[in-house]
Amino acid sequence: MKRLVTYYSRTGTTKRIGEEIATSLGADLDEILDQKSRKGIIGWLRAGRDSQTYKMTEIKVQKNPNDYDMIIIGTPIWANNLTPPVRTYLTQYSFKGKKVAFFTTQGGDEPIDALAEMKERVAESEIIATLSIKQNFVKTNNYEARLSSFLEHLR
Ligand SMILES: Cc1cc2nc3c(=O)[nH]c(=O)nc-3n(C[C@H](O)[C@H](O)[C@H](O)COP(=O)(O)O)c2cc1C
C-alpha cells in the first residue's frame, strides 16, 4: 500500500504532526504550498475571511495523490473551516476509490463542520480515520496517545 501524507501549515503545527505521521508509517510526505501570501496581519485577516467564505486558492504540490492508494491530509482550522489550500487540493484532485484520512490542528475543540466538509469533498473515497489535535497539546507534547490510535487505523 503506497501512502502519502500531505498537509498545509502556516506556522508549523500541522507540519509537525504531518512529519510525525509520515515517519511512523514510512509514508511519503508533501506540503501543499499556497501561492497567496498569508503572512503578517493582512495575510492573517485574509486567511480568516477566505476560509469563512469557502474560497479556493492557487496551490503547488510536489507529489501527485493519483500515484498513491492512501492519502492522509492535514490542515489547520481557520474561522471554523478548513483552509483554502486544502479545500483547493480536495477539489483539484480526485480521490475516488482511494483510502483517505484527515488530521487537523486548531486552537479550540474538535472542528466538526470542517471535518464534515472534508468528508463531503471526498465522498467517493473510503474515509478511514480522522484526528484533531489542539495546538496547545502539540506545543506541550501532549498528543501521543491520540496520534497512536489514529496511526493504528492507517497501518
Ligand atoms: C486566520 C486564523 C483563523 C483561525 N481560526 C480558528 C478557529 O476558528 N478555531 C480554532 O480552533 N482555531 C483557529 N485558529 C488557530 C489555528 O487553527 C491553529 O493555530 C493551528 O494549529 C495552526 O496550524 P499551523 O501552525 O499548522 O498553521 C485560527 C488561526 C488563524 C491563523
CATH architecture: 3-Layer(aba) Sandwich
Regarding CATH, which class? Alpha Beta
CATH fold-level topology = Rossmann fold
Structural class: alpha/beta
The CATH fourth-level homologous superfamily: Flavodoxin domain
Number of domains: 1
| Residue fraction in strands | 25-35%
How many E-type strands?
8
Which properties best describe this structure?
155 residues; alpha/beta; Rossmann fold; 6-stranded mixed β-sheet; binds flavin mononucleotide
Report what the structure shows.
With 155 residues, this protein is of the alpha/beta class. The protein has one domain (3-154): Rossmann fold, CATH 3.40.50.360. 39% of the residues lie in helices and 26% in strands. The protein has helices spanning 13-25, 40-52, 84-92, 112-121, 135-139, 144-154; strands spanning 3-7, 28-31, 33-34, 59-60, 70-78, 81-82, 99-106, 126-134. Strands 1, 2, 5, 6, 7 and 8 form a 6-stranded mixed sheet that branches. The relative contact order is 0.19. The site of flavin mononucleotide has 20 residues, from α1, α2, β5 and β7.
